[in-house]
Amino acid sequence: MTINYVLKRLGFFVLVIWVATSLIFIVPRLSGRNPIVERMGQTAGAAGIISSEGLEEMVKVWEAKFGLNQPLGKQYLYYLRDMLRFDFGYSFAYYPAKVVDRLAGAVPWTIGLFGMATLISFLLGSLAGALLAWPRSPRFLQYLLPLFLTLSAVPYYLLGLVLLFLFAFTIRIFPLGGGYSVAAVPSLSFPFVLDILHHSVLPGLALVLGGIGMWALHMRGMMVIGREEDYITFAEAKGLGGKRIFFRYALRNILLPQVTSLALSLGIVISGAILVEVVFGYPGLGTLLLKAVSGFDYNLINGVVFIIIIIVAVGTLLLDLLYPLIDPRITYHRRMR
Fold first, then answer.
1. Region of residue 67 (left: phi > 0; alpha: psi -120 to 50; beta: else)
2. How far is the CA of 168 from the CAs of 173, 177, 192, 210, in angstroms?
3. Contact at 8 Å (CB) between 281 and 177?
4. What is the pTM of this model?
5. H helices present in 30-98, as ranges
6. pLDDT tens-digit series, residues 182-233
């Protein structure tokens, strides 16, 4: 891997971040709604205040405080400057709390749930799909194919609702939602960690079950094609063992397209994770984004979407840079003619 290639990928990474952040600045403002007016209206309605006397003056004061009275071009420049410093300003809905403080409390929950569920579903799904297409695999695995087909067609949040109904409403093995019990005191103690794991089983299971089906179907299709390749025939002719041919020749060679599919689908997977968080009331970015949208909180929406973009872009970049480690035949060195 050359330095020029790494710099090229980093440049493309920066370009993607810039385009995406520009879009999340422009799109909310296309509605023409004023977040200060929206917030003032919600506050006045909750307090039972009907008179609008002095409301316009308050709106002007808060617009000046948040910089919304500036020209749109100047707002955009200030916005880019603040994004480079990860300064998202104050939250309209949670004022005087800063957006970065709200994000700091939500990001670890999303990364933990999304990261572990994606890793488990990818590994189990890839292995199961490869075994389904391998002629010498156990026959009982073939009965799993209809289940994988069904699960791959069901959205994550619908799986979450089904699991919630079965194991929280009906059997009542797991809690209805949240990241931990209401009476629990956050700490690094073993009981609190167990409480977190207990609350994360259902949302994590929804992501794993939906992901296993998708990865298994992808891997099965590639293995059906890959097992007819000449290097598999040559390995069998050499008398190598079935396990060695499966893991060292077949699985290893078709793993790269599977990793490519993972990189391309990271955005879809994390969007599913966000919806699952909303279903279970999980204290991650999904729940925070829902509150931001319902409160029309520009700054909080920008912060949440920006962090999601960073997570997806960094994941894609890392997978791209790991390609040569997965398959040594891939090289980014320019060959001399």
1. left
2. 6, 9, 20, 19
3. yes
4. 0.77
5. 35-47, 55-66, 72-84
6. 777 777 788 888 888 988 899 989 988 888 888 888 888 888 887 777 878 8
Q: Is position 214 within any domain?
A: yes
- Find tokens 């004023």 and name the residue: 34
Is residue 36 exposed (0-12), middle (13-18) or buried (19+ Cβ within 10 Å)?
buried
User: Can you tell me whether residue 311 is helix, strand or coil?
Assistant: helix
- Can you give the residue range of the structural domain that contains 222? 106-182+192-283
Instruction: For 142-164, write each residue's pLDDT tens digit.
Output: 777 788 778 878 888 888 899 99
Is 43 part of a structural domain of the chain?
no
Residue 80, domain member (yes or no): no
| Tokens (6 digits) for 107 | 């990001």
Helix/strand/coil for 128: helix
Residue 122 main-chain phi, psi, to 5 deg: -65, -45
| Alpha helices (H) along the chain | 3-29, 35-47, 55-66, 72-84, 99-133, 145-153, 156-164, 190-226, 230-237, 242-244, 252-264, 266-280, 285-294, 298-326
Tell me the C-alpha distance between 82 and 332, whole Å.
35
In single-letter form, the type of residue at position 69 comes to N
Instruction: For residue 337, give Cα distances in angstroms to 4, 334.
Output: 19, 9
Contacts of 118 (CB under 8 A, 6+ apart): 207, 211, 262, 269, 273
Let me know the angle formed at the C-alpha of 132 by 207 and 238, rounded to the nearest 5 degrees.
130
Are 323 and 259 in contact by the 8 Å Cβ rule? The answer is yes
Asked if 330 and 321 count as a contact pair (C-beta separation under 8 A), the reply is no
Number of domains in the chain: 1
Instruction: Establish whether the linkage from the previous residue to 96 is cis, with ω within 30° of 0.
Output: yes
Encoded amino acid at 146, one letter: P
